Amino acid sequence: MNPTFIEGSGETVPLRIGARTTSYLPVETASRTFGTSYFLISTLLAAIIPCIELGIGLYYKGQCPIDQRIPTYMIVAGICGLALVGLSIFLALTFMCFISDSTALTLLASCGVCLNILATLIISVFVFIWFILGCVWVFSVHKIVQFDHSLEPNYCQPVLYKWTFALLIITIVWAFLQCCLSCFRQCCTGRSS
Question: Which of 30, 31, 121, 172 has the CA that lies 20 to 30 A from 114?
Fold first, then answer.
């Protein structure tokens, strides 16, 4: 006789009384965020910047004698950015396909989400360190770089250098605005409750 089987009813009972039946992950909240068409479309639009970085880095590789790490920075940043976009798309599709109508994660979806989060975390830490190195490499030569004489040791191809410089500045401003927005939302939410 199986102690978890109720004879005659065709049902089973929990192994222990009060067994947890709710999900540890806030599935509904995560699904409303990551499982939307808006998230998927905005992620695809966000892929534009890594594509630009990768394209410029590959096209102008070897054309920056002042610091050859600048095109390498663009190439690696583009590849990592595309990897993060791919992981975001995978996460969105996981929530849209596996979790759209369920209240708990399936085993396959749970493993996919956990591996996705782990990979995203590892790549994000690397991208943060890579971003700091890119800032050092680009901003340290800002005052001495020139764009006219390609045979000079302080030359860098103008499109490569200016795009790298601009993307670094945009990233810094964007991160600052996101921090301010988060703080503002926390202050407003904290006051109302």
Answer: 172
